[in-house]
Automatic annotation (TrEMBL):
<dbReference type="InterPro" id="IPR001584">
    <property type="entry name" value="Integrase_cat-core"/>
</dbReference>
<dbReference type="GO" id="GO:0015074">
    <property type="term" value="P:DNA integration"/>
</dbReference>
<feature type="region of interest" description="Disordered">
    <location>
        <begin position="45"/>
        <end position="64"/>
    </location>
</feature>
<feature type="domain" description="Integrase catalytic">
    <location>
        <begin position="132"/>
        <end position="294"/>
    </location>
</feature>
<dbReference type="GO" id="GO:0003676">
    <property type="term" value="F:nucleic acid binding"/>
</dbReference>
<dbReference type="Pfam" id="PF00665">
    <property type="entry name" value="rve"/>
</dbReference>
<dbReference type="InterPro" id="IPR048020">
    <property type="entry name" value="Transpos_IS3"/>
</dbReference>
<dbReference type="InterPro" id="IPR050900">
    <property type="entry name" value="Transposase_IS3/IS150/IS904"/>
</dbReference>
<dbReference type="InterPro" id="IPR012337">
    <property type="entry name" value="RNaseH-like_sf"/>
</dbReference>
<feature type="compositionally biased region" description="Pro residues">
    <location>
        <begin position="47"/>
        <end position="59"/>
    </location>
</feature>
<protein>
    <submittedName>
        <fullName>IS3 family transposase</fullName>
    </submittedName>
</protein>
<dbReference type="InterPro" id="IPR036397">
    <property type="entry name" value="RNaseH_sf"/>
</dbReference>
Length: 344
């Protein structure tokens, strides 16, 4: 009964006033009206936007010749690369007032000339590093991380070189500072023992891009590869090894001394290479994959699983158990399938 009353009262006042006086929600009233129109077959939709009359030209607006003059000054050789505020102030110092700064900005916008007027530095996009290792000894990755010392704000530097295929820690150093000479010596000694890889990947730290390291790799014919700036995912193997190190339950909050840090790293990397089962290499140890014994280990694992299946086949409801497969390749930024097809 209240709906007709709202309609009747709305003819005298307004819908808003009628709904307020009768205690009815305006939304409910309009919804009911639309539903009634729909049932009656009346097509309705959003009301068309009101046509606004063109804004009259203000009496103090610039004339067309004045606008053309201002635009000519703004785009002339003298001011083409200067900001509007600079132009306005320079003209004012010379005793010339053309218009306000906001009018200058408006003229530039209307002529698609707004934006940065100075010459801007352009940086070509960095090439994404794409490296493939199909066996140990092909690609190395190295990085430096900080170890907290007992002195607040003082850190030791841990240098680590890892084989990306086997995840084997090739070599490491703990030093009191980051130094390119230390990095060069570390890489040189590692290549004398483990052979020369095809490429060595690192980020863009000062030691990684230093002349001593660059000259060493050039002399030995090793390809240099670097991560893009601020892209940690370009060096995933070193970052993963550092996370395994620092998230280990035995990793201390601080090291008592430089010698203390070296002793800890010696024990940890021995464990990492020879005992830690790495999920990225079929749960084998990095040393097993690096030195070529992982195939025999996997065969022994499969033999044990086959025996378990033969003894209790009912416990394996889906398929025969299979030992985790060995890796066939390790990529830094693997290209998409489409890119691989195009380059094939």
């Amino acid at each position: 009964m209240i709906v007709p009353l709202v309609e009747d009262l709305a003819h005298v006042t307004s819908v808003a006033t009628a709904c307020a006086l009768l205690g009815r929600s305006r939304a409910s009233h309009y919804r009911a009206a639309r539903e009634a129109q729909r049932r009656a077959g009346v097509v309705f939709g959003p009301e068309p936007a009101p046509v606004r009359a063109p804004r009259p030209t203000p009496p103090n607006a610039l004339t067309d010749p004045e606008r053309a003059r201002v635009l000519k000054v703004l785009t002339g050789p003298r001011f083409a690369d200067k900001a509007v505020a600079q132009i306005w102030a320079m003209l004012l110092d010379e005793g010339t007032y053309l218009c306000s700064m906001s009018t200058m900005h408006r003229l530039l916008r209307e002529n698609q000339l707004s934006g940065e007027r100075r010459r801007q530095a352009t940086h070509p996009p960095r090439k994404k590093p794409e490296l493939l290792a199909t066996g140990p000894g092909w690609i190395w990755s190295w990085d430096i991380t900080k170890l907290r010392s007992p002195v607040r704000g003082v850190y030791y530097d841990l240098y680590v070189v890892i084989d990306i295929y086997s995840r084997y820690i090739i070599t490491w150093r703990v030093a009191a500072r980051e130094d390119a000479k230390i990095a060069r010596t570390m890489l040189d000694d590692a290549m004398k023992v483990h052979g020369i890889p095809e490429a060595i990947h690192a980020d863009r730290g000062t030691s990684m891009t230093s002349k001593p390291v660059s000259h060493l790799l050039l002399d030995l014919g090793v390809e240099r590869s670097h991560s893009r700036p601020h892209v940690s995912n370009d060096n995933p193997y070193s970052e993963s090894a550092f996370k395994t190190l620092k998230y280990a339950p035995v990793f201390p909050e601080t090291f008592g001394s430089l010698q203390d840090a070296r002793v800890f790293c010696e024990d940890f990397f021995a464990y990492y290479n020879h005992e830690h089962r790495h999920s990225g290499i079929g749960l084998h140890t990095p040393a097993s994959v690096h030195h070529g014994t992982a195939t025999e280990v996997r065969a022994q694992r499969q033999h044990t699983l086959d025996a378990a299946y033969t003894t209790h086949p009912e416990r394996f409801t889906r398929n025969r158990p299979q030992a985790p497969k060995l890796p066939t390749a390790a990529w830094i930024n693997q290209p998409s399938q489409e890119a691989l097809i195009q380059t094939a």
